[in-house]
Amino acid sequence: MIAIARRLATYDVSPEFSAKVRRTFLSPLGVLLAAGAVAGLAGLVVHPRVLALAGGVLAVAAVGVCWPWLTARAVRAAVRFDRPRTTEGGEVGVTVTVTNPLPWPAWGLTVTDDKAGASVRLPAVRGRSACECRWVFAPPLRGIYPASVPAVRTGFPFGLWHSRRATAVESELIAWPRTYPVGPVPTSDGEDVVEGNVTRSKVGTTGDVLGVRPYRRGDSPRRIHWAQSARHDRPIVCELQSNSRPIVRIVVDLDPAVHTAGPDGTREWAIRVAASLATGWLADGAQVGLTVADVSLPATAGAAQATRILDALARVGDTGPSPAAVPGDRSTVTVVVTTDAAPAPPNRHADTRRVVLDRAGFGGDPTQLVTGTPWLRLSSPAELPDQLRHGTAEASHGS
């Protein structure tokens, strides 16, 4: 009975209302206002001299509210980054320009980003002047910074109540996912390739000699192997490599049901793996496309495509659809980045490779592969860089 009575006595009928009451009356300003009210009541009931104490307490409360409010409404602040892009953990300079039109200095200013949990204290700004403050910022995770609209806050002089005003964001910062070196571009069985400058081990018209064959009508006389032709008494030509540009589509499975959350969970590491594969294969001359969440970038090559892919991966939200069916054809290699909790998507016609992250190594529960053997299996963050570089068949035996 005592336990039941204790639970009934401590049961919170409205937690939200209770939280508001605690924030109001258990704050320094709330305590001061309560003290002023009690002093005023005592002055009316006990002795009028106590009214002086009530007036002094309420005057302190008024100054503690009005001064920060006026300062926050008067000052102007603008935030800008030195460059528009960086990577996770990369340092970039931040500049805040603060203008104070008041005739007296503005003290106790801080710039805060509530969503990112960042706060920077600013020096005093003299009256009718402006100042610039600079510091170095290293984004801990990929994304768009500032994470929310920064605000200038001040509680000077007593810290009883803090007033705030949003700052102007002159430029945003895009933090790209971390990338690691990867193995060679996977080969495709298709013949529909784009001419470029990547030598592949397939028959073409340029590159190194792969072998010889009998002459066919239309072959260039420059490719005739004269020694073999004299030996066989018929024209023999050399077969050369093909300079082709592979086409790869990277699909990132962001289904929250198969991922572990957090900065070191499988979801963030899947995005880092996709970024590593895309940038590494683009640097090798391949054409790379991306499908992630509601973004689909067509396959193309070059540094501009790497920027587009990294920007898209940096802007990915918290959730995304699971690729039920992966589009593709025989000329395109489709690489699906997922976890061992996701079944292989049904796709019988496209050349699909699966990069699978083991949930157990990334803070999740152990699971088993539902179907098939992955093209690349990543067991943990510590082993991931080496597995990305050397874990595929192309890396072990050459592409």
Q: How would you describe this protein?
A:
With 399 residues, the protein is an alpha/beta fold. The chain folds into three domains: 73-176, Immunoglobulins (Immunoglobulin-like, Sandwich), CATH 2.60.40; 194-245, no CATH class; 247-397, Rossmann fold. Helix content is 28%, strand content 30%. The protein contains nine helices and 19 strands. The strands form five sheets. Strands 16-15-14-17-18-19 form a six-stranded mixed beta sheet, covered by helices on one side. Strand 4 (110-113) and strand 5 form a beta hairpin. The longest helix has 25 residues, at 50-74. It is elongated, with a radius of gyration of 33 Å. The model is unreliable at 191-206 (pLDDT under 50).
Largest sheet: 6 strands, mixed
Portion of residues in helices? 25-40%
Can you tell me the residue ranges where pLDDT is under 50 for at least 5 consecutive residues? 191-206
Number of helices: 9
Secondary-structure element pattern, one letter each: HHHHEEEEEEEEEEEEHEEHEEHEEEHH
Q: Classify the fold: give the CATH topology of the largest domain.
A: Rossmann fold
What is the spatial order of strands in the main beta sheet?
16-15-14-17-18-19
In total, how many beta strands? Answer: 19
Counted up, domains total 3
